[in-house]
Specification:
The chain has three helices and no strands. By secondary structure, it is mainly alpha-helical.
Length: 62
């Protein structure tokens, strides 16, 4: 749970930096945000969550 919150904070910081520097625009960012939001409600969400958890576990093993 703590890893999920820190991952959300890290991704939020990255998005803010990208928007402020002009590398990411608001409308495409909103589309990606909505895609992720609706993806979380589908049947593939547990697989995505498992993949992210295993990737962070693999990175944490270094």
């Amino acid at each position: 749970m703590a890893l999920s919150i820190s991952l959300v904070v890290l991704l939020g910081i990255i998005v803010v930096i990208l928007v402020r520097t002009g590398y990411q625009r608001i409308m495409p960012g909103t589309a990606v945000l909505l895609f992720g939001f609706f993806l979380a409600g589908t049947g593939i969400a547990p697989m995505v969550n498992s993949a992210v958890s295993s990737l962070t576990g693999w990175i944490g093993s270094f």
